[in-house]
Amino acid sequence: MGIGPSTCAYRNDCAFHKKTSDTTAIMLLKELYCHGGPSKCEILKRWFRGKPIPTNMLPDGTSETTGEGEEDER
Fold this sequence. Notes:
Layout: H1 24-36, H2 42-49
């Protein structure tokens, strides 16, 4: 999807948006939050408030886990 009025302003710096994974879940989250409804994105809300954003945070506010079920702490 192209850049439009509802495309996220933080996308160029966002670790989630930069993910190269093309799993169905990641693609769906990008479509829903990055391109369709950035105002609902917890990552963007934190960015606007100047709060830290974990690199494994997902737009819904949950954390992506590694294959072993532990949070990625990169």
